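Entry 12.
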Amino acid sequence: MSSPTREETLAALTWLVEAGADEAILEAPVNRFRAPPAQQGRPSAPSPLPEPPPRASTLPQAEGQKIAAAEAPSLSTPAGAARALAAGCATLAELKQALVNFDGLAELKRGAKNTVFADGRPDARIMLIGEAPGRDEDERGLPFVGRAGKLLDRMLAAIGRDRSNVYITNVLNWRPPQNREPSPEEAAACLPFLHRHIELADPQLLILLGAVSVRHVLGSTEGIMRMRGRWETYQSVHLGRAIPVMPTLHPAFLLRQPAAKRLAWRDLLMIAEKIEQLGLA
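Predicted 3D structure (tokens):
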């Protein structure tokens, strides 16, 4: 069969384009630069073209350094400064002092009376994490001491616990104005301290109180009603192990929605069972 003429080839290509074809492929990739096998009576094909050298970057060195610096954690940002401070703390006392001295959230701290660090026994191996201090917590410098705190005490008592055998802290260490929810920037600046707090306390069990705690500790976007009552894990690189986590409803929410206490009770029963399994009773 004779080879198609140039006009026939163009006509076939035109038909394919009009039919919607936009790419020519075969069942296997073809190296167009490779010489075809020599055939009798035909001259051998020329040597394959050399591979083009790697294209050098046209980005000036100074610009590349700027981009690298921007991608690296910056000590000039509150979150970057917090990471550096928290990483340098070897004890809970040092971590508390680092928070007191931290000036990355100066405006938030100016509106607060106290840095609210923690309450309870650090070596209790059961750690509860809430959202942020309220008015009573800000006044006394301790987490969960207002109406929500009193309900939390009753919840703990229902499973044989109190502040002498649990450890309590918050995502945020200063009261936000009007008890509003922490902003993403505020939470980002406090999270390095919280992560270090967990590492230094070395708990066997984490209980997250409310949606804000779940969102920032676990990084989940699911609502608290979907997360509560379901065991999760917190991965700690520093501790080299996973910590079981129970998300549950915040006591302040239960004060507003008393009917939800039955859900919290189910969560408490699961927590009590896990405490027994871990030998923390």
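Annotation: The two ends are 89 Å apart (CA to CA). The domain at 77-277 is CATH 3.40.470.10 (Uracil-DNA Glycosylase, subunit E).
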